[in-house]
Amino acid sequence: MQWLLKAILGTKNERDLKKVRPFVGRINALEQELQSLSDDALKAKTAEFRARLAKGETLDDLMVEAFAVVKNACRRLCGTVVDVCGHPQTWDMVPFDTQLIGGIVLHQGKIAEMATGEGKTLVATLPTYLNALTGKGVHVVTVNDYLARRDATWMGTVYRYLGLTVGCIQNQMRPEERRAQYACDVTYGTNAEFGFDYLRDMGMAYSPQEMVQRGWNYAIVDEVDSILIDEARTPLIISGPAPYSTEQYQAVKPAVERMVRKQRDLCTNLMAEAKAAIEKGDEETAMLKLYQVSQGMPKNKQLLHLLEEPSARRLLEKVQSAMLVDMNKEQARALREELYFVIDEKGNDASLTDKGCNAMNPADPDYYVVPDLVSALAELDGDATLTDQQKFEKRQELQNQFADKSERIHAVDQLIRAYCVYERDVQYVIQDDEVIIVDEFTGRLMPGRRWSDGLHQAIEAKEGVRIQRETQTLATITIQNYFRLYKKLAGMTGTAETEADEFQSIYKMDVVVIPTNRPVRRVDGNDHIYKTQREKFNAIIEEITACYQRKQPVLVGTISVDMSEILSRMLRRANVPHNVLNAKNHQREAEIVANAGQPGAITIATNMAGRGTDIKLGPGVIWMDRGLVTGMTKLSDKVDGKKTLRDLIEERPCGLYVIGSERHESRRIDRQLRGRCARQGDPGMSRFFVSLEDDLMRLFGSDRISGIMEKLGIQEGEVLEHRWLNRSIETAQRRVEQQNFAIRKRTLEYDDVMNKQREIIYGFRSQIVAAEQVREHLMDVVQDVIYARAEDLDDEEESLAAFATWVNSQFPIGFHPDQVVRKEGKRGRAAVDPEATARAVFGRVGKAYAEKCLLEDPAQLNSMERFIMLNAVDVQWQEYLRNMDTLRQGVGLRAYGQRDPLVEYKNEAFTLFADLMDRIKGEIAGRIFRATTSPRAYQTFLGDLHRLAQAQHPTAAPLVGGRAGGAAPRPAAQGGGSADPGAEAAMNAALSAAHSKPVVREAPKTGRNDPCPCGSGKKFKKCCGKDL
To answer: Model confidence over 384-402: pLDDT tens digits?
Structure first.
């Protein structure tokens, strides 16, 4: 039934394209008319459009005219030479029809899927110009700084010609430079730069002058699938130095280095024994030795080389499975104890064995063993010979020993991981005396990112660079949540259709597949399936060698940096020159990818590397007539009435050949890799090489396909290929995609909790920063605190005394319990009026604070008040982030108690956030009388305060109560001096001079559900307590 509806109504994509096609004809017709205008007249259109918007017209009303103006401007610029990042480029681009369709889709806030080479960068100029007319700014997001700089210069030619300003955000820019770039009509930059600027503005700025962004109106995201899907859950984190940072890494580094060398020598001997056992046919011994090496040095080169043999891999998998059985756990433990340390690569953990502890410190093997704190404390509590003071001191000593040893052991474990798992120029590089992380999938550097839990410091110690202090999170947001801030969001990429459901579910963005300007002439070969990875790699090397000999360029896509290194080693052995796009060549990424189309060029790169840079074919790569390339001939069409174009390309290969070394778990990534060839009608070829040992194949279909290969009698080195197998693999990919989407959607539900809270905190904070005078905000907070505290007031003496104590601990107004406001209730009884009491207290606090302000420096008073509020928000928010991280890490365990972790997380997050807001407001209210712009004003206020209190209550102490928790008052000012120690002491004395004498109740308190003392037989709340 579904196919019948599609046949009648067409697909949703076809219907979307049908709606926008009429606009294309109107744009082209209007552009023909614009050709008669002078340059000045065309440029004046920008001011005209803005005037019409001001009079009430909408962007949709102007779309056709604005697009026609941009197209005509591009036509007039043809032949203009522009210096683009040091390279002179001649402008020769005029938007064609499919690009106009793409521009309309982007303006509608959708995702335009356009094939590689279709000119997405130029397409973006159309909606960017239109939406920039509002003056609210347009952000164009690229995947790296180079592309942002290139596109801002190259496409900026059009914008500047039409009178718009263009900015570009680059790393290391100063705040004033960033503010100037954001003030432009169009701003280019990476997702990280935009996100970090948001965090700095919302979470760290203390004045409007320190903020750089001016809103989130409209954004176009290039390579939208990479940014909004692959990196969506990546948190952008601004960190600051933690209050405490360990110094253990340098101290234990020499001992760890010696132990790692011993373990490396031990594993080398074990590998030699394993190989000898395999040669003798002693599989039992070989398995045990391989198990030990995999546990002690999982990255051992000899082990990795041996595992390329299918038989050796099977032995290791067999013994690993056997050691998980309960009856073999003791044997597994005994084998691990023969090592110095054990590495759990999947769990990212490392731990010393008893042998390792002895090697680290032979004189004291327990030096690296965590003591049993619980048993030690229990034994201490039962020791009757010690006094309470001695027990306290001993308990402190035990706890300090436990903390020191735990920290030392943690440092050792992280150093072991740094030496044995993380390899320089693979997982990280060293630049400017800093450790820079390398993205596993793209090979790009990630400056500013740091591994957590002390691992980064361990790697810094290993490499001998400066060990930076441990950090704490100051502000954070995921890329996904940042882009959801924009009023309108659009994106463009070569592959998004397979993730259409996710884009719609999370971002409310539809995906529209834009037809290509010329037919796609790429021949996609069936997957070549082999039994083992070794066979697959050998076949890839043979294919590459054949292409190199016939001078056909090849792009080899891998799923990880490690896989790229393996293929590179094999090509070096085969004497095939090639380029590898990895961390070492990161700066040459665009250059390497751009040259990948030259005759005989062999380029190895991860599937995601080099996105945003087209691969243009060099001279001699295509043998066919140029007219055939620029025409509309399809692969299925016959050439000269003889063979089809597909047959000709298969017989005589030409164009870029894309080889996939493995199927990715996402169809989108595979399609993106295929799309790197056959741009703008060029011929091209693609094929994936797959083995049954690949991760995807081991999860889905490996046994079934293996059975087919055995039934067919396929020997080692023979290949299996069929289009049905391609479909089977794509079905497996679709199942993985659905599973990953479910995981990401679940993660989003957790992120949404934090995101809503962040919006509240940052909204509150931004109001304070943006306000010229913050006094009103400050007093609103004080009022909220007083009213919230007064809600619990009743006629009980303890309640009244507690309220008076709290008031006097916060505000210098000399409040006493008999000053509460009462109202007449039923039966003629006077009851406490909480609201009126709060109103009276707030009025007195306002007067007292006004008196204090008269003594302050008026030039610094507003800054001081702003600092009080922002500092309270920042300190409490940072502590809250740590608490939420702890909650997130442990809440999953509640599933064992048959409770939904997400529900538990939401409930506790709500409670924690309510407490956070109370603490922020309480901190602000408690500091307004403890901060000053100058010591002199502080001392004068204290004197006036004392005289005022004596005049009101000559026999009473000046004030009641002290700061909650016994903390000393903290004078603070932004840009002003703080009180000297004498003034602080005086303020403390004034605020804590005396405490109200606690009220002693003569009779037990009557509960609301207790029988009424009047003897009526009713409950107290229904009788005499009815009006209380």
So the answer is: 888 888 888 888 888 888 8
- CA-to-CA distance for 631 and 625, rounded, in angstroms? 10
Phi-psi region of 433 (alpha: psi -120 to 50; beta: other; left: phi over 0): left
How many whole angstroms separate alpha carbon 336 and alpha carbon 323?
A: 11
The contacts of residue 749 (CB under 8 Å, 6+ apart) are 902
Count helices and strands (H / E) in the chain: 40, 25
- 237 touches 473 (CB < 8 A): yes
Say which range, 199-213, 687-701, 892-906, has the weakest mean pLDDT: 687-701
What distance in Å separates the CA atoms of residue 925 and residue 394, rounded to the nearest whole number? 40
CA distance between the termini of the chain: 70
The tens digit of pLDDT for each residue in 611-654 reads 656 788 888 888 888 888 888 888 888 888 788 988 988 888 99
Taking 50 as the threshold, does the pLDDT of residue 955 lie above it? no
What pLDDT does residue 996 have?
Answer: 37
Give the helix/strand (H/E) hosting 88.
strand 87-90
Task: Fill in the DSSP letter of residue 353.
Answer: -
Name every residue whose Cβ is closer than 8 Å to that of residue 699 and which is 6 or more positions away in sequence: 732, 736
Q: What pLDDT does residue 498 have? A: 85
Amino acid making up residue 906? K
The residue type at 620: G
Q: Are 486 and 219 in contact (CB under 8 A)?
A: yes
Residue 273 to residue 282: CA distance in whole angstroms: 11
Collapse the DSSP code of 647 into the 3-class scheme (helix H, G, I; strand E, B; otherwise coil) and give the result: helix
The residues pairing with 831 across neighbouring beta strands, listed in sequence order, are: 823
Parallel/antiparallel/unpaired status of strands 186-190 and 656-660: unpaired
Neighbouring residues of 69: CB distance < 8 A, sequence distance ≥ 6 = 34, 42, 45, 46, 129, 162
